[in-house]
Input
Amino acid sequence: MKKIGVLTSGGDAPGMNAAIRAVVRYGIYAGMEVMGIERGYQGLLDGDFIPLDMRSVSNIIQRGGTMLRTARCVDFKTAEGQQRGIEQLKAHGIEGLIVIGGDGSFMGAKALSEKGFPSIGIPGTIDNDLAYTDYTLGFDTACNTILDAINKLRDTMQSHERVSIIEVMGRHCGDLALYAGIGGGAEVIIVPEHPLTVDEICDRLQTSKKRGKNSGIVVLAEGAGHADDYAKAIAEKTGLSVRSAVLGHLQRGGSPSMKDRYLGTSMGVYAVQLLSKGIGNRVVGIHDNKIYDMDIVEACSMKHKFDLELYNMAGVVAR
Ligand code: ADP
Ligand code: F6P
Output
């Protein structure tokens, strides 16, 4: 391949810029031209193509977000929209596409590949909800952002002898809550994969109080409910002083961690290598610290395995 395209799609994630930078720098090194497509699949349909050179991606590895911006595009879910996308790509002489996004975006890459347009997916989402890869781009940075918030909230909760219910993102996946909850020493972690009743949560908090803890941290995955609802129910049932905090889009920004910069860079290079061999319809992932690729359909059909052993361990060490 002599000319490839790259776009970012769906929710943005720290590390996407590292992946874009690697695609451009390694693509040019491999003798290719690289076109950026702005605003995801919507930009593809609108013809928002920009040529990228070595200098276009200077000074972005440390920046969160995506220099190509991202968007959601309903039209691209239709065969007609996908065909228009392929026509746009061909009109610009592009022979292969790299899509940096989550499982929804990967469905777009699958559709293009099935229509004979080689496409490669790089897992860019803070949710870590793609079962085929141990880590998705942005997950590590988002965990550290949550951890910073937990540390700050722990200070004031201890001063006022209160409980903080901290709602984190993750859509239907509980990994952000689980891993950041472990790192933050949360007394209770509530995830959609392992629902807890209000009574169970209250029992854990009251037991914690009996053991001499004068404050508490509860990390709640958004897929398991709303912080305000839990705060109200727990306060009513236990008489504890409870406050809620919804971290929201704070978790999507920030300078990517070393891990996400490394992941973005190595996955970007690997994706270009696949296209240079004419290989499409694959997604790039990391398993046991090794970058590898898998068929898109096979990868997206894998069910995310929640680590129940880790979850239970967290409960023990937070007593
Ligand atoms: P994510 O990639 O983070 O999961 P979304 O689920 O919002 O984000 O998907 C991002 C974009 O990918 C959508 O706006 C749409 O353009 C495209 N997309 C999602 N699902 C499909 C699908 N089944 N077929 C084709 N394109 C899709
Ligand atoms: O998929 C990433 C994510 O941040 C989810 O964790 C969250 O539920 C969703 O995107 C928020 O979507 P939006 O940015 O469109 O509000």
